[in-house]
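retry 2 of 3: previous attempt timed out while embedding zinc ion. Reduced batch size to 1 and resubmitted. Inputs unchanged:
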Amino acid sequence: MSIEERFLKYISFDTQSDPQSSTTPSSMKQLELGKYLVEEMKKIGIEDAHLDQSGIVYGTIPANSDHGKVIGFVAHMDTSPDASGQNVKPQIIRDYQGTTITLNQEKELYLDPHEFPELLNVIHHDLITTDGTTLLGADDKAGVAIIMSMAEHLYHHPEIKHNDIKIAFTPDEEVGRGTENFDVEAFHADYAYTIDGGNIAEIEYENFNAFSAVVEITGKSIHPGSAKNAMINSIRIAQEFDAMLPVHARPEYTEGYEGFNHLENIQGKCEKTVMEYIIRNHDLILAKKQCQDFENIAAFLNQKYGYPMVKVTIEQSYLNMREHIEQHMYIVENAMAAMKECGIEPYAVPIRGGTDGANLTYMGLPCPNLGTGGYNFHGPFEYVSLTMMKKQVEVLLKIIERNEVI
Ligand SMILES: [Zn+2]
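retry 2 succeeded.
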């Protein structure tokens, strides 16, 4: 089966995950794709392919040599809850000429290179787009298709010598639960790559250090008619608190390696106001300093008003994988060298978020992220370069071959 047929088959499954659900996986429809993949893996020759009780697909391409490390490849099967993934109607554009693509005439949805300049990187590529009514699902079924095509190639080419190669397809990445039940020990890889990014020239091994802060403010509610010198309106104190945080450290003013504090939610009455923030920085010392700002402002306000009116609760969400990856830089270097051998000029980009790979890294499986050739994830403007997907299969094979030289 070609990678194109494979990808088109996978996106015909609706695998949207559900952030409201507490079941595992969060939506049962994800299991349908999981079962299909297990069957396909068995047909390719992956005898131990199976779907475990949490909805994760695992499989091993057995070693035909004992040299090199055991490498894992991971992609996710679910699609984002932000847009429908049901009844996806893909459009295929051969040899893209750099012009505006009409996604949906009726809805007036277009992929215009002026609006989406990344389109200029994929001129003469074959592209797959949506019809404007759903997302495409390249995030991350393009990753699944790339890994499956890599596996099939290895079975057809036993002359490529390799150690065990481990494969996993996870549910629920889009709702932040992709690694919740991942069995790192049973997976038994020395390191792995998630295949879940954009341009295939990119490699990602740095992500945010992430904390959350809940700020609870207790005011003094008094009938407004007799409030003089007695009422303390917690909503006003919340405004005062927020105004003391640095204005430029807001998401809308930051990019690259700049961290931020983001006020996600605020609910309040005179008596009590609760604010929820997320705190992000690639640098752990700076992230902790941002957390300290919250504590300092609370202490200041408590002193100013003379009673413990502000309570701050900070929790750690996830950490930057960089310091762990840096102890095994050959994982990044090997991938970059493989890309160069395939004619790609690689570059590293800091992720302004977290990844399943970051979680896996902290669970003991170092795991940077590689691209798929997909763009504009999570909505109707999503598209993928088939040309890049094919190239990424070559890169993965090269990573496996190069593993021998380490
Ligand atoms: Zn993804």
